[in-house]
Amino acid sequence: MPQSSARLRRGATVAAMVGTLMVPLAGAPAGAGPAPAPAAFAADPPGPSPSPSTSSDVRALSPEVARQLDSAVQQVMRTANVPGVTVGIWTPDRGSYISSFGVADKRNDRRMASDLYMRIGSETKTFTVTALLQLVDQGKVGLDDPIGKYVDGVPNGDRITLRELAGMRSGLFNYSEDDDFFKALTSDPQRSFTPQQLLDYSFRHPVLFPPGQKFSYSNTNLILLGLVVEQQSGQQLGDYIHRHILDPAGMQDTLFPSGAEFPAPHAQGYTDQTADGKVADTADWNPSWGWAAGAMISKQEDLRVWARTVATGEFPDGTRMVSPATQKQRLITPATPIPGAGYGLGIFNVQGWIGHNGSLPGYESLTVYLPSARATLVVLLNTDIDHDGQEPSTLFGEAVTKIISPNHVFNLPAQPAAR
What we know:
The chain has 419 residues and is an alpha+beta fold. The chain has helices at 3-8, 63-80, 124-137, 162-166, 179-187, 195-203, 219-233, 237-249, 291-294, 300-312, 324-330, 392-404, 415-418; strands at 29-30, 34-35, 84-90, 96-105, 110-111, 118-119, 270-271, 280-281, 297-298, 341-343, 348-350, 353-360, 363-370, 375-381. It has 13 helices and 14 strands. Strands 1, 2, 3, 4, 5, 10, 11, 12, 13 and 14 form a 10-stranded antiparallel sheet that branches. A two-stranded antiparallel sheet has the order 6-9. A hairpin with a 5-residue loop joins strand 3 and strand 4. Residues 1-6, 9-53 and 415-419 have low confidence and may be disordered.
């Protein structure tokens, strides 16, 4: 399989997540340094970790720590040739840090900023699975129902459960690894794909293993879950997510696009996952190929809200997004081939950090929450080009957490699950 096709698998990816860019770094830090503490949630219950809240799990975000963070982030940018990145860290009692570096647009050196819209790739999976879990709470679906109950024509559809789809243990081939899919996307990046077209790319391949046997990251799983949400809710997936997740969470700057629309202001995105292998600007690419697995758009502040909301199952106003019993099932994160990393129902746990990352051509993101310290980390960048086999979002996550949470270092390697 061509390397470019293998990399695109991450596009709406997860378990070994994110990309890099071979362009000169331009611009100095924008707005570097600690930021004022954000507004607190209405209710602040214990997080999903069994450990008691321990603020010492995260260092106080003092001016000296902020300088260390500035230096570490800029070093990753230089090493990986990342054009622009924004990093946000928030704690309830140890301060906060919001800084942006580099450029959002290489054509005019427009500065990167924390209030830009960004494509968030596989973080979409956390929203799709949340929608599914809400339907579980309503009694409309069961996690141990076979997918064949809802969608016809799925290989092993009478055996693969919704739980196995959400937990990446279905054994279904990942459509974004298909060579013909890669050619179709890169030959016409503005084209629109239907969910059935995406499934067709997957289903012409044999299953990889019997359901539940092991972990294998596959965007195909989320396309199927998106169809289940639509069928059982009677709503389009994007409409359901807006009405039942984004609106109650107050996330007004997050959207599920129906096509290539991209609100302004946004960062331009840069990738080498192209037909000719040359770096291209992807801001106008149509993310329909990611759909329920990777099409969404957001901003840093909304993702700050989402990090804690998805990790606790509770909206900012204290009402439940997902019932405690269902949330408990979500956060059972069996081991993956990646040391120190487990994957639950559309969510991972890497050394205590709970959340998801995202990558699709031109953009990467990381949104994670550390329950033991009630700390949030959000990283957004405008490239997905690997650096020495590592994804830049992971490089940033590791560099930042080595400083702020040395006992909980986000060290997610790229090779085992997303290649």
